Amino acid sequence: MKKHILPAIKLTVLSIILLAVVYPLVVWGMGQFSSNKGKGKVITQNGKTYYANIGQSFTEDKYFWSRPSAVDYNAAGSAGSNKGPSNEEYLKQVQARIDTFLVHNPGIAKSEIPVDLVTASGSGLDPHISVQAAKVQVKRIAKIRGIAEGNLLQLILAKTEKPLFGLFGPEKINVLELNIALDNLK
């Protein structure tokens, strides 16, 4: 028994030192070399500070809407809804989001609504929407703001982030950055 206890204690102490002290220090140190010292991408607009890497709530018709959040955009409680696709409450919630979107975007068919506009992400804090999710909102925003649809489509194209290395992930748009650029359009 002594033959097994001493190596187990040594391994436990080594694991604690490596995983609770060394690894966090290495990650923190790497963050110090990034822009903004590892504190995320900060955007200041009209005296307010926003984190561009955390989803923001945009529900006014004059803005591109964000992806819904299961945690009401609260970064302290990042989580999904943990409800499966057959859960009745979840299905009612998604249907309510679809109905709301259709009311605010007349002329759009239910089949044209991208899934990321009616379902929350796994973290509940996704700051991005798909390019299609932005394009399906163009008519509403153009009408309210009196901006040509072509100008809005150019803005979407300018704010589209390409996949990592051109291979990994879909094209996406940061909603906060898109809406700030929208406010800055003349």
From TrEMBL:
One of its GO terms (cellular component) is plasma membrane. It is found in: Cell inner membrane. InterPro entries: KdpC (IPR003820). It holds the Pfam family KdpC. It is a single-pass membrane protein. Keywords: ATP-binding, Cell inner membrane, Cell membrane, Hydrolase, Ion transport, Membrane, Nucleotide-binding, Potassium, Potassium transport, Transmembrane, Transmembrane helix, Transport. GO terms for molecular function: ATP binding; hydrolase activity; P-type potassium transmembrane transporter activity. The chain crosses the membrane at residues 12-31. Part of the high-affinity ATP-driven potassium transport (or Kdp) system, which catalyzes the hydrolysis of ATP coupled with the electrogenic transport of potassium into the cytoplasm. This subunit acts as a catalytic chaperone that increases the ATP-binding affinity of the ATP-hydrolyzing subunit KdpB by the formation of a transient KdpB/KdpC/ATP ternary complex. The system is composed of three essential subunits: KdpA, KdpB and KdpC. Belongs to the KdpC family. This is Potassium-transporting ATPase KdpC subunit. It comes from Pseudopedobacter saltans (strain ATCC 51119 / DSM 12145 / JCM 21818 / CCUG 39354 / LMG 10337 / NBRC 100064 / NCIMB 13643). The lineage of its organism: Bacteria, Pseudomonadati, Bacteroidota, Sphingobacteriia, Sphingobacteriales.
